Amino acid sequence: MDEFLSRNILFWGEDSQKKILSSHIAVFGLGGVGGFCAEALVRSGIGELTVVDFDRVSKSNINRQLIALNSTIGEYKTDLFKQRLLDINPELKLNVINDFYIDDFKFEGIDYVADAIDTMRSKVNLMRICYEKKVPLISSMGAGNRIDPTKLYISDISEIHDKKAPFVSNILYQLKKIGITSGISVVTSDEKPFSQQKISEVENVITSSGEQIQFNKIIPASTPFVASCAGIFMASKIVSDLIRLF
């Protein structure tokens, strides 16, 4: 096996590394959470990765996102991650979908899904479809409006400690309406969300199929610390589940 995986193999062994190499993971959202998750998966030696995002880098991304630099403002995140991830592992089979996710993704052959979507409709749809298709999924629910990464933890949605945090409670409510109350893993936080100011904006998106989507987007406060760690937590959970190490 390639030398770049040698330190991984010292920990989990060659058989586990072969399992990781044979796995196909999909990461939805390449922002502060999903970007770190995708990169950690590639550095773990994932053989095939599908990344989905529609957005371009903005200056407000620079405080927390891997590919956000002054030199990359205005570029598609998928293009930047394609270059970066293939530079880490040129042998990676990388599928890039530069589009806004609704509910038309083909999940055949996907071993695990990482959900780092920040829009309610798309997030709930993704969680529902993975639940129905029995595709393992871990979802980010609690990286915004926080500063302390030590308060992050992984649990089933039925075991979230604080179900009253607004973003969490809204998602749980939508899932409960369709009969889902357990069976989905999340990375969430015990830290009480905080923001100096509440800001929202109307966002208009045109999908690759030509569908026009308009939604009201709440802009969370974001620090350089929590989103990145949440993404690492997600990648760790995925790899651990693949090789059933813990």
Q: What can you see in these coordinates?
A:
This protein is of the alpha/beta class. The chain has a single domain (3-193, 222-243), classed as Rossmann fold (3-Layer(aba) Sandwich), CATH 3.40.50.720. It is built from six helices and nine strands; from the N terminus they run αβαβαββαββαβββα. The strands form two sheets. The protein has a seven-stranded mixed beta sheet, with helices on both faces. The protein has a two-stranded antiparallel ribbon with strand order 8-9. A hairpin with a 5-residue loop joins strand 8 and strand 9. Helix 2 (32-44) packs parallel to helix 6 and helix 4 (120-133) packs across helix 5. It starts with 5 loop residues before the first helix and ends with a helix.
Poorly predicted parts: none
Could you estimate the helical fraction of the residues in percent? 25-40%
Instruction: Compute the number of strand runs.
Output: 9
Task: State the CATH class.
Answer: Alpha Beta
Please, how many domains? 1
Pattern of helices and strands: HEHEHEEHEEHEEEH
Secondary-structure map:
Blueprint: H1 6-21, E1 24-28, H2 32-44, E2 48-52, H3 77-88, E3 93-97, E4 112-115, H4 120-133, E5 137-141, E6 152-156, H5 166-177, E7 185-189, E8 199-206, E9 212-219, H6 226-243
Parallel strand pairs: 1-2, 1-4, 2-3, 4-5, 5-7
Antiparallel strand pairs: 6-7, 8-9
Helix pairs in contact: 2-6, 4-5
